[in-house]
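Human:
If only I could read backbone structure tokens as easily as an amino acid sequence. I am handing you a single protein, as its sequence and its fold in token form. I hope you can help me see how the letters and the tokens relate. Thank you; the sequence and its tokens follow:
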Amino acid sequence: WIHGVYLITSVEEETGSLDLPVRTGGMLINLAGQLDENLAISVHGRRLCLRAAGSLEGVEPSSLSEAFHELSAPCTLHFTQEEPPNCGDDHVVAINLTRPIPAAPPSGRVQVARAIARVCSRYSRASRVE
């Protein structure tokens, strides 16, 4: 983002929730292996917790682990972020409108320095300009 000019084309607010469709038994087994003892998983530095929604709708929190292990595919699981999202978590799509310009070759820098010296010799206050 630094040293660029961007055209923001879309912003999608992060809601802090994720509905995960599980289509196969293999996906369900793989997910079960990634969940910790609190039925949470870390994704991109965010901790997501399994909730009683989707295919687990109506399950008591104390029975969530047992109900999860009894699930079969296809099913839908609902996760929410442990910490509420903020605007820094939003998904921004932007196009960089600038392009890098290569540094001037040493000979070009010498020419620029000479031109600045000529201007400063004519106009005493020009040397104060940054």
The first strand starts at residue 6 and ends at 12.
